[in-house]
């Protein structure tokens, strides 16, 4: 069988938003990282909220080689029961993450940037709408930018080329099944 | 900061269904492949429908090493305009894919299996409901099984531990933006 390899007449970076309350937003962003790596693209991932809980993707992306950078800037989910860090510390971390994202965008060394859970960070006021808009404005035309997290701001969705809402049909934790490696983290 | 590494009291394989018409189902499955690889898990991916169009994940998974197997058994989307293969040929391929899935399940050599677009294959009658149920029945208790594709059958969702529906909020192709490498393929 003949395999067609598409090549768009015009290559352009897309803004992709993954939102909703179901499982599959960060996961989908990681799938794009895998796919982009297959194309030899250079990837920068900045995780805004995660950081206190190990996730398999941290070691997974190492397997993809040094074209993928992963920055874990968060200290876990702000406001979630059991998270010991005060709001100010979460905000300071998220602010550092914004500065890092702008620096990485401006370096023009990447083909794909993932801002993981930035939608949550915005909703929790750890970052400001105008900061997210500044990132969208600073994006080089050829760079894919993926923004994940529940409750995406309408102005962010407005700027997206492609946006999906992932809704929960069912989830194992509702039947008291513990998070499982490989799937949940 | 201290990083917690979760370990469930009981490790168990989960059945995960990703359905809906939005972007992010196969992509999310690929994210689980990346995550599972980070945990050192062995992965088997069988793509039921794709095959005639190159996708970056084919080379992406090679970077993950020989713990990941990818089988592309399809000849493209049956019934989609421009696909030149007759129904019988699509059905024969999908039947081979089912046999392969059962063989791989029974080998007990994998921690994660992805049956990509199997929901579509079922909906298009390239495979039968009882065949998908037989796969669910044959699954070793410790194996994660991920089934993707639009229009998942209710009986399949019934068997899932976790199921998400990915809906389209917007998609670049509706504004005549061509598919872009790294994001769309």
TrEMBL record, chains A, B:
Give the first-level EC class, as a single word: transferase
Tell me what reaction this enzyme catalyses: 2 cob(II)yrinate a,c diamide + reduced [electron-transfer flavoprotein] + 2 ATP = 2 adenosylcob(III)yrinate a,c-diamide + 2 triphosphate + oxidized [electron-transfer flavoprotein] + 3 H(+); 2 cob(II)alamin + reduced [electron-transfer flavoprotein] + 2 ATP = 2 adenosylcob(III)alamin + 2 triphosphate + oxidized [electron-transfer flavoprotein] + 3 H(+)
The pathway it acts in is:
Cofactor biosynthesis; adenosylcobalamin biosynthesis; adenosylcobalamin from cob(II)yrinate a,c-diamide: step 2/7
One Pfam family linked to the record? CobA_CobO_BtuR
Q: Which domain of life is it from?
A: Bacteria
**Any idea of its EC number?**
2.5.1.17
Q: Which family does it belong to?
A: Belongs to the Cob(I)alamin adenosyltransferase family.
The UniProt function text for this chain reads:
Required for both de novo synthesis of the corrin ring for the assimilation of exogenous corrinoids. Participates in the adenosylation of a variety of incomplete and complete corrinoids.
User: What name appears for this protein in its UniProt entry?
Assistant: corrinoid adenosyltransferase
Naturally occurring in which organism (per UniProt): Desulfofustis limnaeus
């Amino acid at each position: 069988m003949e395999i067609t390899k598409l090549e768009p007449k015009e290559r352009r970076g897309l803004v992709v938003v993954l939102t909703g309350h179901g499982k599959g937003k960060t996961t989908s962003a990681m799938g794009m990282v895998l796919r982009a790596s297959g194309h030899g693209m250079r990837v920068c991932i900045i995780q805004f909220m995660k950081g206190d809980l190990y996730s398999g993707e941290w070691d997974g992306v190492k397997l993809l080689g040094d074209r993928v950078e992963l920055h874990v800037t968060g200290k876990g989910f702000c406001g979630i029961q059991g998270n010991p860090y005060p709001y100010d510390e979460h905000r300071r971390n998220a602010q550092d993450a914004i500065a890092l994202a702008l620096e990485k965008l401006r370096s023009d060394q990447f083909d794909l940037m993932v801002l993981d859970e930035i939608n949550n960070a915005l909703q929790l006021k750890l970052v400001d709408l105008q900061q997210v808009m500044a990132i969208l404005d600073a994006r080089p035309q050829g760079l894919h930018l993926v923004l994940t997290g529940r409750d995406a701001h309408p102005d962010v969705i407005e700027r997206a080329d492609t946006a999906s809402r992932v809704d929960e049909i069912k989830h194992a934790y509702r039947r008291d099944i513990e998070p499982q490696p490989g799937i949940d983290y």
